[in-house]
């Protein structure tokens, strides 16, 4: 009987070895370990053995059964693995094919510039102030030290609605309105918005464009504060290495008035086509709030001083992104708009 | 303002500083030098030539064969200019010469005749045509007799000069004169200004003997000076004078006119010269025009005058439009022998208005408009008289005829150095401030720690302390200002809730696949109210530049549709744009229209497009509705929003819905009407516009988390057959109501309209989810509730389960 057992074991192991599929292996399992299989038969036949041989034989049969079972399991795992591998092989795809696009739009480049500027100044404690695009002559001009008949009004030919109402020519009336409403309180605001001037649209002019201005009013605000603020802004917006320089200029609502240049971000100052070989790029106008403007808004210019600055997001976007024609911003060509979809950080 | 550096040297020593460096210094100190024009750039081998003979070319009518003495030799040059003649001194460009525009002169043969160069016009040397004297405008330039053949023609013509073009800000009208520029440059370089010396011998005869003056409009003309010069000879001006004028962009005419222009450029004081004999009345009367009065100005245009316009008259009729342009009737001509020089102060506002009304801006009017220096009015007249004596052989009558009630006082400003330093955030010593003001030739005295400054009348931009702070700072150098940040309480900055939510709306629209557009606010009358959610009287420009941009929009859609058409016309078939911006409605109490923030969107083309997986789906109503629903969800408004079938002009009557917030219409969404689609050259296009202000005014509820379900939910799917007109929305309402609290969710998952259901009906399938957060529901409970739902559906809409 021992011999018989050994033979059975060898047979089973060979068949396991030979099994090429899960099904074949299952057949082997049923054939040898099933209820009608030889091992079960042997176990059933144990009763016929003398009592003293039973434990020994029982142990032997169990060993054989365990050996066969283990072998079966091992083989099963192997075959399953093979089956999985074959399946995976069949499932292989061409990973070079393009993915399913995520449908996304993006900000208009002007909004991108405006929000970047807003966020910098918000981080410096500024609030965002907005005002009407159709303005009273008073806020657009008079409150800003530009009385009727002032020669500087020539600088910005305007679209009038009535004699006293016009499309605002700059976002400065928002400053005038804020000062008038905050009478006596310190102010730190940034004012973005659409403005309008009587210009024929061409590559560098647009009858509608965008401005963003800032205003700080408080006790003892100095011109050095303006310079320090603008220098930080220039670095944030155009890169850590940017230097700034101030040049005297003129705006009726500030005195002194300056224009700010930044060292060219393309060539670093050595001269290129972006900075027209000067190494510097004009970015914004600024100045100390004119005492008349403070007075008209109810601030005592002996106590309060302030600074203001203003810039054109179109110009900044044109410089930053190399856009050559201002009309692109208002044509809304999808091939233009969709280019402003990624970070630059 | 064009500043010839050669001319400037007469008034201030620029110490040999290269023009580009000088320009940089001037710019950094406050006057922007826009361009630097090197007049001799690219010009070589150009000499004075003398035409010894000039004969017609035998083979060509229009060509002349000239023998030209160029110093050491005489060469043959063929010339096509109509005005070339023997005996002239001319400009000869010899072989090897370079001219502007990259032209190189070579020895050549013209119709068989050798030409050793070219006889040039001034334009060919790069001089602007409009500044060339009329006599030479159409031909070669003829040099004066004293020009020596063979010598460099460029220096003779003053072309060895660099011009600085100033971009003057409106406050610096003082630099609209060579002397003003000299003061500025002198201050920058710490150099003195050399003023012209005015010396001449006056005749015994007095001006007042031959001329009387009456000023009837004192307000608009507080000062008038007239000088008389007789026995002069009108001729071409000396070349140096013509050269200066051309450098400044002014065309030379004759010596009398040129002198008035020269003095205008030198002093910034406009002058006018009348022909004394043509005045005829020996009298000058300054008055306002009689309404409807006519006069012909120097440009031969007859003008009808208005009562607010100031005129110079001979006592009978106007002879000049004061400060703007002279009259043709008193113009100096070749035969003029006696001249009246007018130097006056005309009120800026008056000249500004007149010049604007008649549409004439001249070198004179731009200066009067800004206010000329009261202290130079008389001096400029003397300077012109001197030059007419020197250059036109005139005899200057003694004295002048004058009216003078003009305030010529300088403005006194008291300034404390501490105030200056406090405003600048600097520590400039007081003596440095005194020195800077001294360099600017601004009288200043230091007394008791204060600066007493007398701002000269030539600098009308200096009125208050801040003006002087700027003068001190700009010459001390803005580079010296330190960098600090405002001191004081710091408050948190930020966006207000509208601004914050508007950013949220933009982000959502972009994450939904739409690109942000920015279109024009101005539109045409026809489009101003198209698609408007609400119409009100339009806001219209007084003087539009074109009909297309004449009225402010009341809807964002027309321009968004134009942008869509623009893209589709360029074969971009799928367009998805949105815009946030204002519309303008009616007029409020303050005279301004009500500005209301809107958001609008347009989609056309494909929405899903994944070619290699053969997936593509066109946009439809529900894509746009999904965007609106998503936006409402983002804003926390879903529960307050409903949709109602609606009709709107320009939209498809069967595919349009009003969007309601708490029952009030906040917007519209729908398909563009096929006629509109055709009009815009668009295929199926869907649009949406909402009142953003109304949407964002609504505040969302606080966000409190609902427990993640611990008990399972149960789903039941039903397919109903209903009448074709039955709205899914109302069926869902019925289901919701009947389902009560246990019904957590109901969703449409199929819509079928076709052969397999009875005509006039459709099949709608819903998935219902039952759930109780407190426990697991039993089958029985769900069945009972579900049956109630089915019963309600049958009762209220006649819906039956699809067999």
Q: What's a concise summary of this model?
A:
Chain A has 345 residues and is an alpha+beta fold. Chain A has helices at 2-18, 22-33, 38-44, 54-91, 109-123, 137-140, 172-181, 223-238, 291-296, 313-321, 328-331, 334-337; strands spanning 127-128, 134-136, 160-162, 165-167, 187-196, 208-219, 244-251, 254-263, 280-289, 304-311. In chain A, 41% of the residues lie in helices and 20% in strands.
Describe this structure in words.
- The complex is a heterodimer of chains A (345) and B (803).
- Helix content of chain A is 41%, strand content 20%.
- Chain A contains 12 helices and 10 strands.
- Chain A folds into 2 domains: 2-91; 109-337, Bira Bifunctional Protein, Domain 2 (BirA Bifunctional Protein, domain 2).
- Chain A has helices at residues 2-18, 22-33, 38-44, 54-91, 109-123, 137-140, 172-181, 223-238, 291-296, 313-321, 328-331, 334-337, and strands at residues 127-128, 134-136, 160-162, 165-167, 187-196, 208-219, 244-251, 254-263, 280-289, 304-311.
- By secondary structure, chain A is an alpha+beta fold.
- In chain A, the strands form 2 sheets. Chain A has a 7-stranded mixed sheet, sandwiched between helices.
- Chain A starts with a helix and ends in an 8-residue tail after the last helix.
- Chain B is α+β, with helices and mostly antiparallel strands and 803 residues long.
- In chain B, strands 3, 4, 5, 6, 7, 10 and 11 form a 7-stranded antiparallel sheet that branches.
- Chain B is elongated.
- In chain B, 43% of the residues are buried.
